[in-house]
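Risk register update: the risk of archive-format incompatibility is retired. Evidence:
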Amino acid sequence: MKNNENKKFFRFGFFMILALGCLLALLVSGCAPEEKASDPLPFDRSGNGAETGKETAEEGAIDLVDLAGERFRLSEYRGKKVYIKFWASWCPVCLQRQEELEALSHETDRDFEVVTVVSPGYGNELSLEDFRTWFAKRENNDFRVLLDEDGKLVQWYGIRGYPTSFFVDPNGSVKVFQGDLSSDMIHQIFASDIMNGTAMEDTDMNKTNTDKRNAGETRKIYLAGGCFWGVEAYFERIPGVVDAISGYANGKTENPSYEDLIYRNSGHAETVEVTYDQAQVSLNELLRHYFRIINPVSLNRQGNDVGSQYRTGIYYTDEADIPVIEARIAAEQENYEKKIAVEVKPLDHFYHAEDYHQDYLTKNPNGYCHIDLNMAEKPLEPEAAAEIEFRKPDDAALKATLSPEVWNVVRENGTERPYSSPLWDEFGDGIYVDIVTGEPLFSSADKFDAGCGWPSFSKPISEEIIVEREDTSHGMVRTEVRSLLGDAHLGHVFEDGPREAGGLRYCINGASLRFVPLARMEAEGYGAYLKLFD
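Archived output:
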């Protein structure tokens, strides 16, 4: 992408990635009163004070004093570009970029001003005196820090998480990004079409996450169970299944044909993509149906069909499905002396089979099928409520199943970007379980909106399943929270929670959790925890 003719394509690609990597806040104009026509700069609410001699800025103006006692008025930067970063001393994500931020502030060829804002005495932030002491001891602290004492400016603009970046162009237009931005991203944003008003709606990741979560509540699982004609026809009859499509998964070649599987050893398994409405049917229920129609201890053979293309497999696209899959297999294993041969792997790829394979048994009612389709009409037998056995996998197995981002959180004590997990504003009834073991950790009954961009709870389901440790990383003293059985890094606990609920705030990474809605708890083996909602 170094050739000039490719720059336009590179820039488009960059912002497509940025749209997936950044969380975009609402426009400042949507958070503050309507701007005066004579004052196009949304932050400067002092009228034209510099021209009229006014010294007292109105509420909401960026008119602050920095750590050195020098005053910064945004009104004095009309006609220039300004980058403003709001951050906090307690925010690990903010601190990870300080060396880069210092370097950016000292670049000689940049065409924009760089300032940062902290709010001593507000929320979790240190007092002004303590912040000065703390900041003076940090490395890479040679950049301008404006003091928004008591968070008046933060509250005025409705900033809900750190870091948050304001981009001001020479005309006074403002774009607001929540989340971690590199120096390269900052340069690219100022140089891009995003700053002249386009592409703003398309990069609203809070909206994107909500759309994914509420779009019919559908999910996908990929099931290989021998000849896909019968598997597809069976699952199409299950209430709650939106669609079932026959295809080829996890092989060695791209765009395989049926002949590639049969004659050319492409390595694919005949697989059915099952799309389901999780409000109507749970993954555990689908897997119970799946084990109804396969011989789980048979290797590379189902019915009369023999070969690796007829192997059994459960292929997932979301690590949150792993505890459910493992618990289901463990429960099924009790019915067999021989080890279950169903492979469980992340989906590598899935290609739709040829049209004549789709809905084959509907088109050919007398066609071959190794499955009794009438079983789809038979209700599943009731299960014991608390059948799940919570087990900690070894780290090698765990790393193979988790994404690098989730692994970084649970095993390397990382911190996800605020607002990056769809669980931060999930307020449906249900429980939050450990992504490592599936063990219940928190209840929605104890969840509240702390305005920080991470799931927050006033207490765990039980203090016995949580481990607390002193954490002195990033020049701070905090209390880390880990799961007892899974030893997963969850987040931290602070003493600024709702007083009526005990005063604690368990600030938890959504990457460490999986949410099980109340309607699916019994089906997924968490029936013993329904009493939490009595």
